[in-house]
Amino acid sequence: MHHAWIDGTPAELDTAAATAARLLDASRQPLVAGLGTDVAGARAALALAQRIGAVIDHMNADALLRDLDVLREAGVMLTTPSETSLRADTLLLIGPGMTDASGALPLRGAAREGGDSGRMDRRIFWLCPGRDAGAADKITIVGLEPRDLPVLLATLRARVNGRPAGPPPVPTPVLDGVADGLKAARFGVAVWSAAELDALTIEMLCGLVADLNATTRFSGLPLAPGDNAVGVLQVCGWMTGFPPRTGLGRSYPDHDPWQYRAARLIDSGEADCVLWISAYRAAAPEWSRDLPTIALAPADARFQKPPRVHIAVGAPGRDHDGVEHHATIGTLAAVAATHASNALSVADAIAAIEAHLADGPSSC
Amino acid sequence: MLTRITGGRIIDPANGRDETGDIWMRDGRIVEAPPGANADATYDATGKIVMAGAIDIHSHIAGWSVNTARLLLPEFRLGSAARPGSAPSSSAGWPAFEIGCLYAAMGFTTVVEPAVSPHYALHAHLELADIPIIDKATLAVLGNDDFLLGLIHRKESAAAVRDYVAWTLAATRSLGIKVINAGGVAAFKENVREFSFDDVVPSYGVSSREIVRTLQHAVNELGVPHPLHVHCNNLGVAGSADSALATIAAADGLPLHLAHLQFYGYGKEGGRGFSSAAARLAEAVNAAKSVTIDVGQVMFGQTVTVSLDILRQFNARNQARPRKWAILDGDANGAGIVAYNYRSADFYNAVQWAVGMELFLLIEDPWRVFFTTDHPNGAPFTVYPEILALLMSRDLRAQWMARLPTEAMAVTTLPSISREYSLVEIATMTRAAPARLLGLRDRGHLGQGAVADVAVYENEPDRARMFRSAALVFKHAELVVRDGKPTRHVFGRAFMVKPERDRAIDRRLKAYYNERYGISDDAIKVPDHAIGRPEPFELVSCAH
User: Fold this and answer.
1) What tens digit of pLDDT does each residue of B232-289 get?
2) Which of B149, B325, B331 minimises the CB distance to A75?
3) Which of A77, B107, B147, B537 could cross-link to B455 by cystine, CB 3.0-4.6 Å?
């Protein structure tokens, strides 16, 4: 059976969906937020948002848009985790957030099919690992505190280009050693997590990577934020032309990272109804203001105050098949259910709500 | 449901037909006039032109690179927001939905996305699935991938290569195979900055020629209808004609398709060391009967270039207009996106425009020259009507040339060319020939049994106006466009081939993905259920 609640009290799915539809119909500025879902869920959520004129945002859009800002403003060279495995003889790790839940660095080395097919030895530099420093083994660590990164990267970039630089946070010979190591790479990859860095630091890093390509090959690997943020970004791109933080209330999609940030819309009172989607984990919204909320979240999700409507959804790749951003090949991939259940998918739950909207089910 | 289009001039070169008459449609197909029957719906096409729906064999409309171009250039949308639908001015920003509407408005009913790296196939198919009205297909890109280069390096059998190609077609649900700067991208990852047909990818010891020849033979021997689709080395540089000529010569009497030949139509003559070599290329194509080409016409205005030739895109990044670019050193081919503005006052851009026109006009056989802008690389597909008008009128071309730099026209043969395309030649180039090239036997013509994809145009002297806005478009016999406006958003399918293979290759690739990447090979397969629409694919049969 399906689980649904109205104001914390168990309800039939159909009743809960009808209540959710009434809330959305009555809203003057609805918001579709969280968006922690697979591609089918994102397509359904965006189609719903287009229909009701909602704003769309993703719970990890801060990190997502930091990387995107650099793409849009500065030019970037990127690669994938799989290509890094195959080719990188040098890794440049930037700041914290490099290790997985077990504390291990997630990037493996692999052999290629060509003539020199032996597994390569890698040089690894790690700038300012901060709290993660203990994880390092056979790694050259330079600097410690992440707050030193902007200056460290700027001076490193200057030294790579043979330019003088002000006093770096680490001794110049150490920095020059790193610069020489990077220039000696055959195929180097700089790895960062945008959740841990600001946009200017990422831009400086991407500039360093571009500069290294004057004489050798180097590329960049931003680690993907969780909750299928990159998968949802792609869906937003092809359905609206824009990333999340886009308003769909006009006759054309309107993207503005400040105006359409979910937390701001709620704090300012502009949004008066939220459809909160978090299928991968029981993530609660970051805002505290009370407003009518419809939650598509796991059955065990706990909220500060029960949402008006909570429809339990399963996790893509566990309860049902789905498509999501794949952490190794760095693009969309199909995932099969590991523990198939009859839990609703986000797309199912949205279809149930749409059936009750005032103007009936959508045509396509 | 029986539908009749009456009294139009039916131009159907595949069936040798050019006459006034009726078209009858039932259950999605063209049928013979049923004796004594009354149509359920009748559309009067008196004085109008009736053709099969047009087919675009090479247009970048979906996938990671197209979508990243959207994200790279949000301002392309801002300036054109809420504009009239008939006047699109942006090129890459259109969401998937608008792409289908804009194509259908011009009478196009099938479009091929020609550059899908295997790992990105699911993404491309998901985007294609959200493009309404038109049918679609992808070409899978091989030739810079570790597995194929390994096969050639170890001199494995032709059968092993065939099996791998067949596995790739099945996994990615593609209609054919493309190779993009064969070996050049893999070499670039090893810091090679220039790569020609007989250059060798360092750590594999394999030349571009070997890669192209190996893939050409595999595709041909598998019976895949569409020949190997080749993006040659050295795209866009002065002297690139030599790369195209070397590739044409290597076709060796077997089918081979060269994409966007305009971008290779450059010699080194003239005061600036940049000139048209279109006449030489056209001569070579005219002589090589097994070779087909599409043009990749340049038109003036803002666009964005998207290509899986990252060596080329890396070298072009400093010419970006505006200065915005992204390079993905991705698996196999990767992708490069570089904003670009073709300016009519720019000598080089004017030569490029003329080279495309020359190729259209100097290649004699309309069955072997295909109509593309390499969207969005030469221009967005929405300029097709203007190009058709130029091909059909030397006076219009003369007006254009009069506004372009004289010294640019002086290094081309365009001013001396008087040929004008007829409507029959246009229908051949945009309907009959593409269907034949792709192996789509029931498309591109209006004979009995064909899928009833039909475009009806006003017969206006202003050909651009005529082709910009079809009077009527039918998809599977259903009216989907009236007076250039979509009336119904049906969803088409993606064509694919699935040639026979030895299943041993499946086990081998399972092991490869597990050992190299620590992942299941399922991660790069496109299952039906992932697309989210009923019957998303249509199988096209192979020759054997």
Assistant:
1) 999 999 999 999 999 999 999 999 999 999 999 999 999 999 999 999 999 999 999 9
2) B325
3) B107
